[in-house]
Amino acid sequence: MRLNSLQTLSVLFLGSSILVSSCQQPGEALIDRKQRENEAEIQQYLTQNNLNAEKTAEGIYFVKTKTVPNGQEPKVGDQVKYHYIARRLDNVIVDSTDIAANNPRTVALAGANTVGITLGLYAGVLKLRAGEEATLLVPSAQDGNREGTLLLPQYAPVRYDLRIVSVRTEEQRIEEYISTNKINVTQKTDDGLRVAVTQSRPDSVQVTTGKTVFVNYTGKRPDGTVFDSRSDGSFSFQVGTRAVVPGFENGVTKLRVGEKATLIFPSALGYGATGSFDQTTNTYRILPYTPLIFEITVVRIQ
């Protein structure tokens, strides 16, 4: 589900069949009442626990519990890994990352295109540097993308204890992939495309604009997972027609027939700030701001 701005929730009252609580003020909609009750619960919790919180512009109560002044600051386009524990205000834990196994959650910061995180956690992530920690108290209306459960009803406020494990820019992710996989980059362009030729054919025909090129390829994300591949030599495109993403096309023009190479490029040469969304499965094939890796063989040209 995509991260959206706070949504206006409407409640339909079907005549006298719906009983209105005695604490509800005259003419008050359900969402307004719940927001007022959430605020009261949070204020009481802050007082009881002697917490001095900053209220953000989003309406979230924020208490920084660990400061790392030199930690890397997250920005839109970065990938952030984080741990969290979610609690009700009676301190019952309702969700968490696998802290014991040090298996944090990962999110690509993409503004309104961000997926896989609630609005409350997203707002907290943006206020912390790598290594920092905070407690967030979030009214239900300010925690979009959270679905109600038996442990944490839809309209309940929530406490998040949040720790930022790491912050990585696209450039850092690309360099880490190259280092981890011991890739020997043979060419790098000004726009960030890396070409690592693994099988050279210097006397073969060069791929040029206007030609139709047939290739085999395996497309990977920086975590090594494969999102697409073709191996029967039938995939083709005409160079210069923008039939494929720029990083793929530009990389192929650096090669000759019979050569093999690894192409690595930033999202600006791939699917950019919006990613690649599959309407049939309602999921992202490629998340926003994701660098791409293609292992490619040039089969033939015509």
Describe the structure.
30% of the residues are buried. Mean pLDDT is 90; it is low at 1-23. The chain is 15% helix and 31% strand. It has two domains: 24-168, Roll (Chitinase A, domain 3); 170-301, Chitinase A, domain 3 (Roll), CATH 3.10.50.40. By secondary structure, it is α+β, with helices and mostly antiparallel strands. The chain is built from four helices and 15 strands.
Structure described in brief:
The protein is an alpha+beta fold.
The percentage helix is 10-25%
State the name of the first-level CATH class of the largest domain: Alpha Beta
- Ranges where pLDDT stays below 50 over 5 or more residues in a row are 1-23
Task: Give the oligomer, counting copies of the same chain as homo and different chains as hetero.
Answer: single chain
Approximate strand percentage: 25-35%
Indicate the topology.
Blueprint: H1 30-48, E1 54-55, E2 61-66, E3 79-87, E4 93-96, E5 105-108, H2 119-126, E6 133-138, E7 158-168, H3 170-180, E8 187-188, E9 194-199, E10 212-220, E11 226-238, H4 246-252, E12 260-265, E13 276-278, E14 283-286, E15 292-301
Antiparallel strand pairs: 1-2, 2-6, 3-4, 3-5, 3-7, 6-7, 8-9, 9-12, 10-11, 10-15, 12-15, 13-14
InterPro entries: PPIase_dom_sf, PPIase_FKBP_dom
Family: Belongs to the FKBP-type PPIase family.
EC number: 5.2.1.8
